[in-house]
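[Backbone geometry]
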Amino acid sequence: MHIHLDLVGGIAGDMFIAAMSNAFPELKLRIERVIAEANFSGVSICFESKNDGVLVGTHFQVTEVERSHVQHDEHLHGDSQTHTHEHEHSHDFSHLQAQQHNHEHKHPHDFDHLHTHEHHEHSAHEHPHDFDHLHTSQHHQHAPEPPSVPGDKPQYENVYAKARNHGHAHRTYEEIRQILTTAKLPERVREHSLNIFRIIGEAEAEVHGVPVELISFHEVGGWDSVVDVIGAACAIEYADGATWSCSSLPKGGGFIDSAHGKLPVPPPAVALILRGFVFHDDGVLGERITPTGAAILKYLNPSLRLPSALELKGVGNGFGTKKLPSLSNVLRVLFFQSFPTEQQPIALLNFEIDDMTGEELAICLDNLRAAEGVLDVTQSTVYGKKNRLVMSVQVLAKVELQEQVVNLILGSTTTLGVRQQIVSRTVLARELKSMTVGESNVRVKVAKRPGGAKTAKVDIDDLSASSANCHDMRKLANAAEKTVLKETNDEHN
């Protein structure tokens, strides 16, 4: 299977999950089961059908119950609250721990912490820009409860003690790595998740000039981003063995407000992750590729063009949350099945003849065509030295009999040398059928072309043996080819 990612609106973790689950509906149950078994307390996911007036597809959301906030509200109001992270375009996703807070809460790290927000007593962040923001909790005075994983509680308690002391979701790379390492996840999903987060961490470390272990994630450290990465890892696991390609990437434009001030689009870490990819400018501003989306692309290592001989089998559309002014904010997945072809190595042999008569060369080439190991012989007229007409001959031969064919050429013609190279040829699957038309019996070669079309060709030797002139040969060929194609199609209906 081959999967092509068409970045119409861009790519984020949730868009990748949505597009893959829209293309492969059975993937939804797999992702739901993996997230449920991971037992991240207070985290739920939802797949929704979406129609933006132009396209239809799937939208993926992560909803998080603020556990500490819920307990407080239940005491006062007797009900619980939830909030949904709309994380189509995120940034401001890491910061360095560089100076100590003057807040009452202490950080149990060996290194100091740098924050954009100086005051944490407000109930929600204010964002003066129109890019969606990722947070584990809107209330800084509360930290999420640890997931309940039987047998792993001591490890989780250590991680979450740090998160609670932070008072918010500023998790270090090492904390996230420990969460993924100790969570109840399928091993391949765990491996993909760790690798994706590693890509983000290393890019941030390069931007700031520090070891990756000293990076602390702000928004990518939130539960919604963690779940996005795990969901993306499930999709990658599902497509195990597939090859990947992608379109050029929309650059976007403008600036975003971040913990480090205003940053150009794409942000520095995203730009580092996507080195080597091809971009285009479609005139739509804003952040089009999130850190998680960039890391997924980097991890998949897609080619920049589709392979040949592919049969399109399905399409999936994954929507983001933001609305773009002139196009659908969608990631499109096209999946293909390789067409039934065979790659064969063959020997390509070339030589020229300028001192044999036409009759002599014709006899030599007929003998060459009949020789063991020879697949085909062609000839053409070219101009050689001193503008003399020269016959250029090309021979296709089996690799294992290449030396034998070369010796035959040198022994039966006047050429003084043969050029040789090993090349690969793509061969369509074909079958040979015997057909009776009237009193004639002929063999017909049937081949299936990319796109599903079938073609038939009658063996020319059988035609010449059955017909006395070209008109009868054409009638016989047409009748035999039409009959075999009809029978072949009927067999597969």
Summary: The mean pLDDT is 78. The chain has 13 helices and 21 strands. Residues 356 and 414 are 7 Å apart (CA to CA). The longest helix spans residues 187-208.
